[in-house]
Each structure stands twice: as C-alpha cells, then as structure tokens.
Amino acid sequence: MNALSTADTLNFRSDNVATVCPEILRALDAANHGPAASYGDDAHSQALNRIYSELFETAVTVFPVSTGTAANALGLAASVRSYGAVFCHEEAHIHTAEGAATEAFTGGAKLLPLPGAQFRLHPDGLRTALARVQRGVRNRAQPDVVSITQASEYGTVYPLDDIAEIGALAHGAGLKVHMDGARFANALATLGCSAAAMTWQRGVDILSFGATKNGAMNTEAIVVFDETLVEPLSYRLRRAGQTWSKMRFAAVQLTAYVEGGLYLRMARHANALAARLARELAALPGIELVAPVEANLIFLSMPPAVITMLAAEGVLFARRDQNVIRLVTRFDGREEEIDRLLAIARRAVARTAGQT
Amino acid sequence: MNALSTADTLNFRSDNVATVCPEILRALDAANHGPAASYGDDAHSQALNRIYSELFETAVTVFPVSTGTAANALGLAASVRSYGAVFCHEEAHIHTAEGAATEAFTGGAKLLPLPGAQFRLHPDGLRTALARVQRGVRNRAQPDVVSITQASEYGTVYPLDDIAEIGALAHGAGLKVHMDGARFANALATLGCSAAAMTWQRGVDILSFGATKNGAMNTEAIVVFDETLVEPLSYRLRRAGQTWSKMRFAAVQLTAYVEGGLYLRMARHANALAARLARELAALPGIELVAPVEANLIFLSMPPAVITMLAAEGVLFARRDQNVIRLVTRFDGREEEIDRLLAIARRAVARTAGQT
Amino acid sequence: MNALSTADTLNFRSDNVATVCPEILRALDAANHGPAASYGDDAHSQALNRIYSELFETAVTVFPVSTGTAANALGLAASVRSYGAVFCHEEAHIHTAEGAATEAFTGGAKLLPLPGAQFRLHPDGLRTALARVQRGVRNRAQPDVVSITQASEYGTVYPLDDIAEIGALAHGAGLKVHMDGARFANALATLGCSAAAMTWQRGVDILSFGATKNGAMNTEAIVVFDETLVEPLSYRLRRAGQTWSKMRFAAVQLTAYVEGGLYLRMARHANALAARLARELAALPGIELVAPVEANLIFLSMPPAVITMLAAEGVLFARRDQNVIRLVTRFDGREEEIDRLLAIARRAVARTAGQT
Amino acid sequence: MNALSTADTLNFRSDNVATVCPEILRALDAANHGPAASYGDDAHSQALNRIYSELFETAVTVFPVSTGTAANALGLAASVRSYGAVFCHEEAHIHTAEGAATEAFTGGAKLLPLPGAQFRLHPDGLRTALARVQRGVRNRAQPDVVSITQASEYGTVYPLDDIAEIGALAHGAGLKVHMDGARFANALATLGCSAAAMTWQRGVDILSFGATKNGAMNTEAIVVFDETLVEPLSYRLRRAGQTWSKMRFAAVQLTAYVEGGLYLRMARHANALAARLARELAALPGIELVAPVEANLIFLSMPPAVITMLAAEGVLFARRDQNVIRLVTRFDGREEEIDRLLAIARRAVARTAGQT
C-alpha cells in the first residue's frame, strides 16, 4: 500500500484527503431500502429544497453535483452569456485550478482577473473595474457576474460588509454575484453569522456549497437564490452528466451534512486545529504567517531547510514557493496529529538553527 | 413520503431506481479510514487499472465518472474531432436521451443516426453508411467513431460476430469503436463470454462501463483500451468536473463491483427475473413481446385497458406507446415482486377479456 | 488555366459559380473614396437598416455576413438556447451541408430533422413533431426554432399559406421561425408577392437573406425581424469574425442589390432560364423532372448513359444518384448556354436511343 | 451624410477606415468574367498557394478569411487543444479586443497573458513563464501556442532576434508559434527583411496575414507554414462560415496585394507618414512620444486641453487616456492631411501655452 494513504501519515496537503463523516455514511445506509424514483424525483431529493430553504431562511433550489469544479463552472455557465465575462480574483480557483472549466461550460466566456490583498476582491477594486467596463462595445467581453471565494484560496474570509458592498456594486451594474463556497462552512464558522447573512442577504445570487472537503462523499451542491437561474441550470447539469440517477444518495448526504448544524461543528473543529497549529508554529524562530488564519488554511514562510526536514519526516503539505508552504487542517483531524507535527517542526527549527 | 419511493411499490420503471448492493456499501465503509491522497493518487484508485486490466485481460485505463451521460459524452469527446461525427443507432441513448451532451462536450460534433432492427446497428447498415461518407468534403461532418449500446436500449444483445464485424468495418475506415455499456453486465451475463471477448477482442476501443444500474452508488467507469485516448480524456474529465477529489470512494466501489464476479451474479439475477416475467406475461392472452428479452428489459404490447389497470394498481413502468410498455428488472428485485406483478396482470387481462 | 473556370464552360453546377453583377461592382467603386468609419459606423452601413426596413415594410436590423453558413448558423445561435434544438427538413442545408456549423456556434444545440415531400416541411409534419416534444424533460433537447429553406434545396417554393401555418404552429408552441433564404430572391420572384408577405407577415422572425448566389460578391445578410435577437446576434457576429471593419463595402453591395428591384430582375432571369431548360429537357424521351421547377434548380432523371455523355461534353452539373442530376441556372446565364446544353442533351438522347 | 465619412475628414482613428487600393479593385473587375468553380477550386484560388509559396520562399497553404478576428481565432483553434492555452502579451488584440473569439472557437482554451515592455513579449518573460508551466497537471490549462503581434498593438516591431528566440523557446517546449500580422506589411517594411526571414525562418508556424488595413477589401489570409495544421484548419474554416463560395474574388485580391511588392510600397508610405507626423508633433512643446514609432501607429502624450482642441477641429483619433492619444496613418493617407493635422496641432499647442 502506498505511503500516501496510510492512516498515520501526517497529511496536511489538503482537506480533500479527509474521510467521510460517520453521520453521512449512516445516512447512506439508511436510504438504501427499496426502489426510489430516479433523477431527483424521490422523497429524499424532493425534501432537499425545503431543508435548505429553512437553512438559508429563503426559498432556494438545490442541485447536488459531483465536484466543486462542476458546481462553479455550471453555476457560472447558467449566469453568464456565452459572450459574457466573469470578474474574479486573480488567484481564484476558477481561474487558476479548474482546467478552464468555466471557459468550456460557458461556451467561451472570459474570466477577468482582478488583484486584491490576501486573495480577496476589494470593493474598491471592483468599483474601478466596473467603471472601466465598455458596455455595448461588441469586441469586448461583457461582464455578467462577479465571483468571490468564501473562504478564499488563502484561507481568508470576506467580512460581511465587503460581501454586501460587492453585492451592491455588482447588482448596480447589472451583474450577478457568485460565491465559490468550497470552504463555505469554515468561513461561516469564523463569522458566526447565519448562512443567510453570508449569502443572499448580502447579494449572493448563486452559491457553490462545498461539502466534500468538510465530510461528504464526493457531493457538493449548487444553491440557487436567483430563481431565474434554476431552469437553465437544470438543463445544463443534466447534459453535463451531473444529474445522478440514484439521486437519493446525494440528497441524504446533503441533508445529514447540515442536520443539527453538523457541518458547522465539523468546520469549527478544523478551524480550531488550524488556529492552534498556526499560533504554535508562528511562535517558532524563523517561521512566520504570511496570511491571517481565518479558516482551516495556513500559509507560512520558513527556511527552506526546515521545509526539507518536514518533508523528510513524512509530513505532507503543499509547497508554494522556496520559502512558503500551505498546511490544511480537516474536520477529521486530531489534536494528536497537531502535536506530532509541532514536535517535528520544533526539532527541524532547532536543528536548522544549529546549522547556521 | 412520496408514493414513488415506498419500499413495497412494484417499481419496474427502470433499473436506476435500485438500491446499492451491500458489498459496495461495506467497501465504502472499509475505505473510510485516515487521510488518502486525492484525485486518484490514493492506493485504492491506483489499484483500479491493475484490477480492471486483469478483468479485461489487457492493459486498460479506468476513469471513474459520476453518470452514464458523462461516460458516454466524454469518452466520445476524446475520440472525435470537434468537426467530426459519430455513427449510432437512431434510438441510441446518446442521440435521444442525453440532452445533446455529446454535441456539447465535443464542441459540436454530429451524431449520424442509422436504422437497425431491434435497436441494433447491423454491420450491413454500417457498411452502407461508411460507403456514403464524403471523406475530405469540408462541409460534411467527418465520421470518427461508431457507437453501439450493449445491451441495447431495447434489451437486445449484439452477437459477438456483429461486434467483430462492426469493429472491423470501423477500423478499416479509420473510425474508432465506442461501446455504451450502461447495461454491460446484463449483456455479458447473457453471452456468457469474457469481458475481453465482448470488447477489445472484437474491436472496441473505449467503453462506458455501467455500474450504477446494477448496484453501484452513482459511479460508472470509462474503460479505455486505446491508449492514445487516455491523455486527452484525462484532461477533459477534470475540466468537466468529473474527477472526484475523494476518488477512493469511487475506486472501492468499482473494485467491489467486479470482485469475485459480483457484477455478473447481480446481472444474472436481473436477467433471470426478466426472462421469467416476460415468459409468463407473454403467455397471457392479448400480451405479446415486441422485442426478444436478452437482458433485463422487456417490451410488451397489450391492450390499453390492461395498461391502465396496471397503472391503477400502482405498478410503475414506462409507457412507450398506446399499446406498448417497458418493464425493467433489477439486481435487487425479488421473485415475490414478479409474483405480485403477474397476479395483477392476470386479473387485468381477465377483466379486460370480460369487457369485450 | 483550369478548365473549370473558362468562360465558355457550360457550368450548371451551382449558382455560386456566377460572376458579380456589374451594378454591385460599380457600387464598390463609387464607395471607394476617402476614409469611412469602421465596423458599420459609416454612412452607407447606417443607411442599410432604413433601406431594408422600407423593402420589408417594417423595422428590421440588417447584419452583413460573409457566407450563407455564417448567416444560418449565427442567426440560429442567437435564437436557440445551447441546450435547445432546431426543427428542420431532413435535407436542409443546415443539417447536411454546413459541416455542423449550427451545432458548433450554438454550443451543441441539436438539429431535429423531419421528413416532408419535395424537401419542404409540411405543416402537418411539424404539428405532429411539436405534439411529441417533451417539454421540460431535462434529458431531451428542447426545440426553440423551426428553420425552413425558401426556395428549398430541391428548388421548390413554400406556398405562403404553408409558411403562415408553420409560423402559427411555431409561435403557438413558443418557437421562433428561421428562414434560410440562400435563394430568397428566386422564391420571391416565383411567388410574386412582397418581401414582407413571404417573411414576417407569415411569422418569420429571422432571415438569412442570400445575395451571393444571385449577384453579390461574397456578401449575405441576416435580416432580423424579432428585435430581441438583435443584441445577442451582434455580439456573436463580432466574436465569430463576421463583422467587417470596412463595412461600407458590404453595405453598398446590399444596397445596390435591392435598389430598383435589381435582385428580383436577376432572379426572374435565372428562374426563366430554368423553366425553359426544364421544359425542353423533360420533353426528351427518357428524361423526367423529379421535382417541380419553382426556382432556378432542376432535378432530372435520365439514363446513366445520357449523364455520362453530358459530362463527356464538358457540361458541369451535380450528380445526385445513378439516374438523377441537378442543374442550376444563374442570374448571369445566357439563352445561348441553354441552347448549347439542349443541343448536347438532344444528341446524347438520340445516341442513347440508337444504342438500345 | 455622416461627418465620419466625408472625404476631407482628418481621420487618424485607425487604418481600417481606409479605402481599397485601385489595383485590387481592378483585379476584382478583371476576375469577373464567366463562371468559376466555387469554394476555392477555381484557377485564381488554386494559384494562391503557389504565389504565396514563392513570396515566403517555402511551401505554404493560404486560406483567405473575412476578418482578422477570424484569422487569429481560427488559426489558433487549429493549433491548440480545447483544454490548451495560448501565451500572449497582456495587451494582445486576441486577448483584449476580439470578444473572446479565441476562447469560443477553441472550445474554451485559455489565454495566458504575459507582461512585456512596449506591448512586446520579451524572450525572458516567455522563458520564465514556460518554466512555470505545470505540464501534465490535469487542472491546469496546458500551453500549446505562443502568439505574438507583428507589428504590435503599440506600433512597435519585434526584432528578428527576438522572434527567433521566442520561436526556439516555444518549439523547445513543444509549443507552436502564431503571429498576428494585422500589420504584417508595416513591420516587414520597417525591418526590410524578407517575409520568410520574419516568419518561418524564425520559427513562426502560422500567420494571420493582414491585408484589409493596408488596402484590401475585407480580406485577410491565414498563411500556414506547419502543414499539420492545414487539414484541421480547413474544416474549421468551412464550419465557421469563413470559406467563400466565390473564392476567386478573395484570391485575386490577395494576389494583387503582393504582386510586384505592392503591399510593401503601401506599407512604406503609411510608415513614412507616421514617422514624419511623429517627428514633427514630438517637436512641439508639451507633446511627447510614449512609444517608439516603428510602424504606422503613433502614441503621444499631450495636455488634455490640446487633445480637446484637436477633437474640436474635427480630427478623429483614439483616446487612450486622459493624456494619451493614438494616431494611425494609412496607405492612402496624403502628405496634405499630415500638413493640416500639424497646423491644427501647432495652433492648439500655441493657444494652450497662452492659457497657462
């Protein structure tokens, strides 16, 4: 068996290396009795809209999909004209790490990347960009949507006021607002507000509601607040091969995931592990946080020699740079793993210090 | 709770109303320990190619995907030029019931439907069609692939000789051969040959290997025999949102599905239920088979009054016509359900006979 | 120099082998003075909408494009959802001879071919097809448009009542009506009605207004009656590379083409040549018309030996079959060419008769 | 008549406001005799490859197209996988001013913009970018082509050594080289080398050969050096509606355009006008060149008050900024127009100086 999958590996590479939470496995088991109508006509699937409408305190339509890339690209495809464009942060996952899925599913719409500190669009940056849009000019891609990632790819979280301002700017210019919520729960746990307060009450029209990273089994959801997007999206999903025939097994996951606030409890745990890990690592000489830790992602600068030693000890992480690594904590992470990682890091720092 | 999903409904509408087989649920549970590398780099996923290469007695590459539509449309997209075309039966699922997914994923390739008795392409029909191809004529879509469905949408099964002849014709004309195997196991159980004999040994280059209808949880596979298709397909799948991050949960399903011949046992059961049901229904006055029953699909003609009574008794099925219905049996179907359906049908026939 | 282009060849292969009419060349010359705003902002282009609105007796928007394929595929792309579909005749040029341009520009919409005598959709055929549409079924391509070709690919002309009935059926079902008018002028000359009467007054929403075959220099127009299509079409044209920078040279062609009814005079001439040629050929023993000659296309059956002799004498035509050829007459055709062709045909028939 | 098109307007807005050169109009007239085979099978079209192969001193295939956007986007579409990517300058026309045509025609390939002084890619910049490419990573768009614009959108010209270095870097990394030559002749006139030396001898695989801006009538060409691109391109052009039926009228333009070096004489004239205009304007107080003038584009900074006065006097130009305008000279520009513009500018500068 491959070293990457042994249970005692210190795997901080991503939250998608996680297991599935037991509540979801139990829900799958419980749903596995007798025939059920396919493609979402079963009772479990029919209940989803109601359950999520309660969660979001407004009428929503929920479409389970198999991946975050599908959620983002198809949600955007339903929101943008094929000759349209999407404003996003220049480090947005949709722009840098989804294989141009949005360009493909939209039929060639353009992503218009904007800068912004800590991987967040700043309302002022969006305002400037909107002011420069050449509306009606036929050889310019026409912006139809602004996409933000909450929590961001840098582990930072948009303050509610920023979302509201972005929402108001977008709507004022005739654009829709898309939220990539691959780590929605982690951001929501940090802000401590309601799901409504972080989305439609601040102007979000359509949401990629992440669940896989935080405990589900390869199941995400698109949550649609703007009902005009529902019909086009439903057709696009089916032809994209994103409408499961045995839909009940997606529906019960998404139901179990939010029932009794499970998703928030799991996210809080991951966030707390990250907070502790970041705090203790940053206290070591030569190690510094390069981004605020507001969710379950940690970006740290440290001497290359320390990075090398961590890797040599079998710690798995993503290297971003000569000096920078990313560590990700998980809903199923254990304090004991943090302890072990800290011990390794302390030894590495000590040894490196000895070397210089 | 919706009537469609109660466990004692006589549901013969499709095999996608089925449950998940217990072996697969157990495999999911067993795989759910500790972190595992994502996107197919885990040990379970890495083993898939080996396991399926053994099953198919040749080196294959396996890509798990979430639906049959994704398997077909993306497999075809990797096999056809965007200005190319796909020969298929005029009743092929890819042509009639996938929302033009193939046209979308290929960038506008054309499906060229051909007639053929019992929903099967006949080698002679393909020969004629190939002879009429206007190779090199720039305003004609250029055929690149022949797609056949095994078992067909009519529940019929291609004889091995027909597959071989279609394969030879296609390859002789520079086309690849795609097999839509949504009900691959049912066809294989009928023919009683090896998986190799029904595919690459007869010329199949790429296969949509169905698993969901026959016991898996929303997991299908693309099995690639022609290795030149592997790289383009891998990129297309990722950008289509069809590459799961927690891939192990797809891999273990596909492993459990074939382990010890499970998939064939399940298919044989469904086929046997269909054979019995078809035989006993066709023995009733006024009811006739309109297609040979070679897998788990049954097409029957019967008086509209009988159809109405079946529906009134809560039997679920697909109506194809004034006089024609389709019944589908499942891996998890029970003899007792067949008994109940037969009893209802006998009463309906008796009552209708009394009416005339 | 290639035999195909010598001026005295008897070229009946297509009307696109024609010259450009002198009035259009003069207009190009006249427009060639001083700088002019680009992309349609010049005075000539600005006048087009007015001139064609007068011609069509209603407010229209005109977009010059470079080919009929562009006119059809982009006009349809602006009229159909990417997951939509287009009803057309099974022999429609858009379906058989445009390299799947419509599938490509629409992002994968489906053409739904219907049968119909003499290459025309019959209103009853459309009625039946519309009745079978599975509205709202997510895995079925959703019809958005009906496309008819006037004159048809068989040289037949839709009666006004048929257009009106097709228009009413389409609109009643929420579909738009597209007319491929590659030979618009020939049909209009035959019917003798107004351009308005053959289009929007009978329900046509968008028209590919052919000009190249009938005297223009590689310039066609999309005439839009349904103003909701104007904006999306304008963007699609620009990104398709179909918006000329020196637009005046397209605009003055389209202006000269219709000025004083020039286009109708040219079409009447071509039609008259076809009528005479058809009449005299069909009078010969063994030669029969296989379609009524209602425009400038003639489909004839004749003994293969006669066909061979025509070809041997250097006559250029399109062979459709063992026994069937197509002859096309042109706006710049001369009676003397008809005389020569008839003489050759008479000799061929006489010789063949002698052979048997 | 609109002020924009009067012959005595001082129109420096773009070179696409120009007329058609008389040699081309005469060639159109001369070609207008008798029928000719369509879609490029006529003698004039058949001669094109030979004529351009002589011009480029190697075997090339030439495809006439209607616009520069079509030339670029379709040439790139034939060169890139749908999941591929194109390196280009961040100010490249294909990225900023073609309505995402490349994204559309490629099926969603990504443009990867790079910085570079004076709107030119620098070989070092490309080297760095190539080093960062994540080959084989499935969620990263895979670069297949580098596109450079010669002359650039800033009127600068790539030195031959830079083209060669870019070509070598690209080929070394498995990428093709595309040249957007909307102002090919202007660059060639500046460098004074052969067409071969500026293209395939330095690594260019496919070229958008501009002709419209420099005297042709809405006719550009794609010149293909890499013969593997010929077949896919030919199909893509036809389905894009970019293959004219009366092809002879494009072919004779492209023949006349280069015959006896006409295109270079016209470009030299435009360049000389630009050089004089730039020199004399930059000599005025407060006016400065912001880019070197190496072709027929001039970018100048000047006080906003001067810009306002130029506009008030009816001079047409493109404003880029508060302080920056672009002036473009044309093959059909006259010294007298330069005189008048200079006189207006001198008055404006004098008056503005008086104001401060």
Automatic annotation (TrEMBL), chains A, B, C, D:
Keywords, comma-separated and alphabetical: Lyase, Pyridoxal phosphate
Any one Pfam family match given in the protein's UniProt record, by short name: Beta_elim_lyase
Domain Aromatic amino acid beta-eliminating lyase/threonine aldolase: 11-300
GO biological process, one term: amino acid metabolic process
GO molecular function, a single term: lyase activity
Domain of life: Bacteria
Necessary cofactors: pyridoxal 5'-phosphate
Assigned protein family: Belongs to the threonine aldolase family.
PANTHER family: L-THREONINE ALDOLASE-RELATED, LOW SPECIFICITY L-THREONINE ALDOLASE
Self-association state and partner proteins as the record states: Homotetramer.
Name recorded for this polypeptide: Beta-eliminating lyase-related protein
Protein source organism: Limobrevibacterium gyesilva
Organism lineage: Bacteria, Pseudomonadati, Pseudomonadota, Alphaproteobacteria, Acetobacterales
